[in-house]
Amino acid sequence: MPGVVVLSLPPPPRAVHAGSRSPPRGRPGNMAAPELLSDEGYRADGRRPAELRKVRARMGVFAQADGSAYIEQGNTKALAVVYGPHEMRGSRSKALPDRALVNCQYSMATFSTGERRRRPHGDRQAGELALHLKQTFEAAILTRLYPRSQIDIYVQILQADGGNYCACVNAATLAVMDAGIPMRDYVCACSAGLAEDTPLADLSSPEEAAGGPRLVLALLPASGQIALLQLSARLHQERLEAALEAAGQACRALHAVLDRVVRDRLREVTALLGD
Which pLDDT score is estimated for 114? Predict the structure, then answer.
């Protein structure tokens, strides 16, 4: 597929190395905490604790939108579409005199999980995640450049396998850039958890379902500003710092991937304009 970047992210600098790259065989069930990390230091899918899933991304997938992007993080697949900035739609009383209104919608396709979803739109969780997206991108987009206007960001999960919100943030970042809307920085998001005292980056669906503490971080890597931080359980400060550090390192690794995708898209568009 032209214009697609496929990368297998290396473990960040603080990764835990366990010798051989391939996961050990012949010792099923020899897992710790509970079944998240093997005695040899590998996760169930063969990754090291700080290693991310493979990332595949593409910008400009819809010509009708102002900006669009598609991303895969492991088996999680997300699509983002951006319209704007444009005049306010509906009631003009919602217009903000000093900045643009950021409108976000989040949804999951009915086929995104093994169970058919009867209400892909409008459920409570979708509303909460849409609000999180709005808060995240209000911190990143230079909204004051577009007073009394509106920017619409629509994201949809096409396949869910853990880190749904994070994949949506990363896809939306590419889509906003594809629309040419200025931002303070990239917004990169990643989750982290703990297997006993070992931090795990970029949790898959089985790891999320294990029920341990889960941290979600949306970071502006250049400044280190946190756009969103969500924690699913109480943690001691030392354990929280370890999980936060793992998520931060993962976000910085994702930043390098997203930057590569943007640069490849820029070269592609420049070549088309040159022709």
Answer: 63
